[in-house]
Amino acid sequence: MKDEFAFISKIAPIKTYQSSLVQGIGDDAAVYRGSEKMDEVVCVDTMVEGVHFRRDTLSPYQIGKKGLAINVSDLAAMGAIPAFYLVSIAIPSSWNEEELAEIYRGMDELATRYNMDLIGGDTVSTDGPLVLTVTVMGRVERNQAKYRHQANAGDVVFLTGYVGSSAAGLELLFDKGVGGEFTVAEQVLVHAHQEPTPHVEAGRILATFHERISLNDVSDGVASEANELAEASKVKVTIEADALPFHESMKNFSREKQLDWALFGGEDFVLIGTVAKEYVNKLSERFRKRNVLFFEIGNVEAGEPGVFLKDGQQVTRLEKHGYNHFQKRG
Amino acid sequence: MKDEFAFISKIAPIKTYQSSLVQGIGDDAAVYRGSEKMDEVVCVDTMVEGVHFRRDTLSPYQIGKKGLAINVSDLAAMGAIPAFYLVSIAIPSSWNEEELAEIYRGMDELATRYNMDLIGGDTVSTDGPLVLTVTVMGRVERNQAKYRHQANAGDVVFLTGYVGSSAAGLELLFDKGVGGEFTVAEQVLVHAHQEPTPHVEAGRILATFHERISLNDVSDGVASEANELAEASKVKVTIEADALPFHESMKNFSREKQLDWALFGGEDFVLIGTVAKEYVNKLSERFRKRNVLFFEIGNVEAGEPGVFLKDGQQVTRLEKHGYNHFQKRG
């Protein structure tokens, strides 16, 4: 069957696809050359019922919305503009048509906000839990995609929003149940868990900043994501405990819980990144003008790759053990 | 949060993505404008253990290879050149690392043949059956993608390979088990089921033919796929029973079985399409030169959309009930 391949090569040199592969696996999304002006960004994420979500903490609508949000967050972390999505879903008989429609309505709600088109998918049956796989595609100006491996010594570490809220909301849901009575402050945290907002605008500010930026999204907690930046960039990252930004709704919880949720909780879907110290004011000014949050939370030094938490005089190493939901793998 | 969207619109008009959407859902793959010269084609398919495959008929290597082949076949049906793939897999604890590696080896084997790069994916755990979701991306010369809705009255219906072999192979596997003793002829059929070849080369001949072509791949049996062509194109399709091409390995089976497998078996992954009668000789000559099979099997007329089988003087309507494996949905 070698002929078949040779024939294809003759018509259009597939080699150009390989050489146009800007970045492979490593970051959560892949980037490849699209047109003269824009690179293409694509990624896929899977959510399994009982592993990544439970029906007693998320409604079908929220499952859909969050399933797409997780993927759009990966695009945001590359600085990309969301464009298309495809939905593949394996459905057990315990889900009815209305619940299924609610999943799609949740995705459509978020997609409409970003002008994303649903362009494909597959619907199959399963005897197991519901499995929702979303593929998203976006575009970013040529060579402007942001990666994890771009941090250098001398950089400042930043976050584009509050952390810990989602994990706090999940704990509240576990405590009181989805129908529980929540204070206004608690509702904010529960909402942060149930309907997270991907930081697309922050990603676009960073992609159009035209200075070196390293970037990642906080899906697994600050400790895990900072470690990914440190490992990919081969640098030492130090985070100041007192600089971690918490939403005011968190203030009734102990400092210990706040830190634990921020560092190891995950699913906040803000962006974490680094920028050279000399550009940090210019960058934070861009965020301020757009009314987008920007917090300096630490710094980057040369050294053995790793992440450290500085809390007053105490410095402790932060291992890369992120939020694992209720599962072993993934 | 409307601001966020407005901001994105200002930087890059997302509307251009929407207007550049050449074709939405309907065909198995979506096409959108990539560069000046090439359109992008993308599709996704999910295989569930116990629904789309069973471990007693396919090895982990074959599950991987077939999982990718099914998707590449969707690209072939659009006339596209395969380029990239992403793999999302939900794994139960009953699968070990070696078996998992075999799934990826099977995909890699097929991908290498088409110079496809694995550019992303997700690996998660599940308490249910294994769920394998593959997203594939390819490219086709601008405006040359082939669709189901292009059949016209006066067209000839063609197939690019033998049909029924996969279903025959599956029946043999059910009868004798994967370790059973198969004759050489039977091995051919079993192989057709376990390691189908997507018809990429045929798709490329058709995409570069520059005449109107309607096209679909035979994943669910000729009856089902011909009905999709008929419905999408709003035409009446007649298939000649005696023109259906069977591999010589099928000759020991009854004609009734052969027809049943071809029409309702599925998973042959040849292409079925139509072309105007005046171009059929020119087209079949192109296939002959490339040593790719091409069979005329019927014709297209104006009329109520539907598919009919002409067997001697007898004409029967073929309903769109394709091969459903062992499942209800998908």
From TrEMBL, chains A, B:
Keywords associated with the record: ATP-binding, Kinase, Magnesium, Metal-binding, Nucleotide-binding, Thiamine biosynthesis, Transferase
Binding site for substrate: H52, E267, Y323
Residues reported to bind Mg(2+) 4: D28, D74
Binding annotation for Mg(2+) 2: D45, D74
HAMAP family referenced in this protein's UniProt entry, alphabetically: TMP_kinase (MF_02128)
EC number: 2.7.4.16
Organism: Halalkalibacter nanhaiisediminis
Gene transcribed to yield this protein: thiL
Family per record: Belongs to the thiamine-monophosphate kinase family.
Pathway participation: Cofactor biosynthesis; thiamine diphosphate biosynthesis; thiamine diphosphate from thiamine phosphate: step 1/1
Coiled coil (UniProt feature): none
Domain of life assignment: Bacteria
PurM-like N-terminal domain ranges (all copies): 26-140
Domain PurM-like C-terminal: 153-304
Primary role: Catalyzes the ATP-dependent phosphorylation of thiamine-monophosphate (TMP) to form thiamine-pyrophosphate (TPP), the active form of vitamin B1.
Further remark: Reaction mechanism of ThiL seems to utilize a direct, inline transfer of the gamma-phosphate of ATP to TMP rather than a phosphorylated enzyme intermediate.
Binding sites annotated in the UniProt record for Mg(2+) 1: D45, D122
One function term, GO molecular function aspect: magnesium ion binding
Pfam families, sorted: AIRS (PF00586), AIRS_C (PF02769)
An individual GO BP term: thiamine diphosphate biosynthetic process
Record: residues binding Mg(2+) 3: D28, D74, D217
Catalytic activity: thiamine phosphate + ATP = thiamine diphosphate + ADP
Name the UniProt record assigns to this protein: Thiamine-monophosphate kinase
Lineage: Bacteria, Bacillati, Bacillota, Bacilli, Bacillales
InterPro entries with a match to the protein in the record: PurM-like_C_dom, PurM-like_C_sf, PurM-like_N, PurM-like_N_sf, ThiL-like
